[in-house]
DNA sequence: CTCAATTATACTCAACAAGAGCATAATGAG
DNA sequence: CTCATTATGCTCTTGTTGAGTATAATTGAG
């Protein structure tokens, strides 16, 4: 009955299409191997995330992304989730002057075929963000290099209120205030380091070279920022949704599960509380086997309960993150 | 030192651009007026969200969106946040065969100029989703119309495991199991109703007309789905981030704040607990004035504490949602 | 003026979640 | 055999959260 107005509105909305843009799909693909979180990269310098243009024969954005990742890395993707879409002002096509829209995704898998390839590879994500791994305590880079240089940057601000603002942001993001370290603030930390021109990416073009970049492997374009976004999302998400299981083999011990979580969070976990939480949530069930790969009593093997598959979109896996 | 490989990788990634697409920006703009959450629409049937193509002179996606909303509705936007990006398979330009990528945003403001306009207007979001308002108890549409028709849809499935799967999804999304109603599942509910072909949008093109659509105002294209996404995001977000304040006037009473939260959540809140939570989080401060607009003792007026502006990106506003 | 309805506000209480520590048993490495 | 390492059970404290009770301050209706 309201078809007429509906169609009129629709025509108004679709007429006068904007200029053409091209759409890029970028993937942050994560696996955890031997307690190390790793990211899938392409290029010999491991400085790029798998990516490629969205094409006509892609049925959807997701399937386009899968196609690109599989073409570039031979690696099939399981779970994927959208991260963020942005349009860089300076991203222009070679021939035509055309905006590029980048749509980034987070993907979770298990690492396979560890043989080295010239076209792609897996790299520990703490190579890119050495200040993010707090499993063995606060990394020395933080008090020795990052914090002094960030504070110097805050102090060199012109206006006094800007100085205060910078100081407060640094203190908050890097856990210098009473709240302590918050492992979720990966992106905020990277953006501060970028703003303070301490990462290599922020120095491009300006060859003044008097300030050496801080440790941490750089990437092309804004790929490192996208990686930071993916890590932040994952660190947030494992706390309220059982996505860790996408990274686990079909059967695993509770310690392996814990090590995976710790690898992602960059922080240690209270073992007893971790087990209490996992078991009381009925997320796993025993397979019946036990293994004794290490010392200590044999550990039971578990598998993810398929029953919760339907509900897992909302079920929560809360994690007891500790400071020790 | 690794400039060479970096540039090589970059060239490889940027060459061979994909086909051109056009990018659409779509806005879900929300305000709460007199305890009713409302959404900004265009078109006489109020069946479309403000939207327009991303153009060359837009500095960024966000500024393009702001430009479109202000052009179409004369309404300036405050807080905005990205919702989701998708590429519909059937969305094709009139002249060239071109994919359309839609980037949707959630915007929060206060409603101004309530005079009626032919080009745009504000509409209560529960007009579009009558089953989502549980402030006065479970709405009758739910047990009377929706649940029976959804169960019929589940039962008409072919395979028995598909039947079970549908039943479980319906029970979970509509709170028929022991977990009860979860106000965050707005999108899941809409998608189930769409899948069951109970909403008008799902019947387009197929003029079989033997099944009347359920109550709830439809929108063009997938705009209603996008609105559902925005509502879901907002309902989730008010629980852990103080975004409600974007919807409030500069000064307000705690009851007004509570009514706003209840309007968004579609659920009532335990007053004493609400106040305890708000005050212990130091989110507000007294202005010193009191007002007695209604009966009862005069209420103190509060304002949002500017001090928390910097931290609010992470501060939490937890809400005590009750069932009564 | 009086009463009823409505609101602000202060407390209490039980249930539970979460961080942290203690204790004990089982196992393999040296 | 001894010990480091791990699995596992239990306790204890603290804070959070849902829910109820109680009381005082107002205004509008009659």
TrEMBL record, chains A, B:
Database matches in InterPro entries: NMN_biosyn, NUDIX_hydrolase-like_dom_sf, WH-like_DNA-bd_sf, WH_DNA-bd_sf, WHD_NrtR
Ranges where the NrtR DNA-binding winged helix domain occurs: 244-304
Protein name, as recorded: NrtR DNA-binding winged helix domain-containing protein
Source domain of life: Bacteria
Organism in which the protein naturally occurs: Mesorhizobium waimense
Pfam families: WHD_NrtR (PF21906)
């Amino acid at each position: 009955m309201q078809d007429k107005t509906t169609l009129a509105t629709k025509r108004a909305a679709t007429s006068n299409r904007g200029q053409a843009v091209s759409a890029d799909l970028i993937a942050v693909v994560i696996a955890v191997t031997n307690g190390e979180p790793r990211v899938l990269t392409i290029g010999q310098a491991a400085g790029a995330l798998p990516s490629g243009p969205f094409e006509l024969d892609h049925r959807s954005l997701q399937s386009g992304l899968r196609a690109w990742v599989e073409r570039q890395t031979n690696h099939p993707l399981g779970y994927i989730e959208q991260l963020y879409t942005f349009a860089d002002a300076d991203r222009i096509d070679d021939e035509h002057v055309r905006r590029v829209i980048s749509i980034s995704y987070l993907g979770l898998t298990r690492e396979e075929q560890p043989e080295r390839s010239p076209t792609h590879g897996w790299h520990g994500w703490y190579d890119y963000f050495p200040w993010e791994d707090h499993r063995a305590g606060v990394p020395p880079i933080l008090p020795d290099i990052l914090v002094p240089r960030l504070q110097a940057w805050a102090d060199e601000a012109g206006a006094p209120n800007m100085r205060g603002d910078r100081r407060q942001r640094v203190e908050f993001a890097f856990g210098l205030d009473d709240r302590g370290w918050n492992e979720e603030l990966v992106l905020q930390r990277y953006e501060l380091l970028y703003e303070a021109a301490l990462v290599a990416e922020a120095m491009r073009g300006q060859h003044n070279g008097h300030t050496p970049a801080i440790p941490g492997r750089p990437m092309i374009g804004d790929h490192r920022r996208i990686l930071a976004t993916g890590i932040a999302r994952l660190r947030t998400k494992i706390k309220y949704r059982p996505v860790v299981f996408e990274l686990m083999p079909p059967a695993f011990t509770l310690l392996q599960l814990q090590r995976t979580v710790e690898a992602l969070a960059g922080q240690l976990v209270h073992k007893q509380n971790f087990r209490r939480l996992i078991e009381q949530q009925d997320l796993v069930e025993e397979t019946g086997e036990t293994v004794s790969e290490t010392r200590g009593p044999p550990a039971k093997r578990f598998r993810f309960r398929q029953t919760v598959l339907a509900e897992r979109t909302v079920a929560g896996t809360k994690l007891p993150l500790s400071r020790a």
